[in-house]
């Protein structure tokens, strides 16, 4: 069996920590190092490992780099978020979704809870 353990994100400032708090994440561990700060945040079963370091280069967006494209979270209702959401659309599976960006421009997809994404056996 395999399961997702955590998602690691590099951010430029504490502003991103506050952004993820607005999404419902709670800080559960913080480690200060000489060159960055590592903050673990959790919401439900999702764990983020956030590296706060203003010295990393900015994210390239157009065209997108290969690799991780976005992080997707689901919520019960968009109205319950402490963040303004953009245009609501339907995803590949007919679920309501929208994209927002964190303070450093990382794309975050928010999906309204309904049907869940599962592969047929």
UniProtKB/TrEMBL annotation:
Q: Give the source's domain of life in one word.
A: Bacteria
| Glyoxalase/fosfomycin resistance/dioxygenase domain location | 4-110
InterPro entries, sorted:
Glyas_Bleomycin-R_OHBP_Dase (IPR029068), Glyas_Fos-R_dOase_dom (IPR004360)
Q: Name one Pfam family in it.
A: Glyoxalase
Q: Which SUPFAM superfamilies match?
A: Glyoxalase/Bleomycin resistance protein/Dihydroxybiphenyl dioxygenase
Name it: VOC family protein
């Amino acid at each position: 069996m395999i399961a997702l353990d955590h998602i690691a994100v590099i951010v430029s400032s504490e502003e991103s920590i506050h952004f993820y708090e607005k999404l419902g994440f709670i800080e559960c561990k913080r480690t200060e190092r000489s060159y960055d700060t590592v903050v673990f945040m959790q919401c439900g079963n999702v764990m983020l490992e956030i590296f706060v370091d203003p010295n990393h280069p900015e994210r390239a967006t157009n065209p997108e780099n290969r690799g991780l494209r976005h992080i997707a979270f689901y919520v019960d209702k968009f109205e319950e978020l402490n963040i303004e959401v953009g245009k609501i659309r339907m995803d590949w599976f007919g679920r309501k979704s929208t994209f927002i960006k964190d303070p450093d421009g990382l794309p975050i997809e928010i999906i309204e809870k309904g049907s869940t994404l599962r592969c047929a056996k």
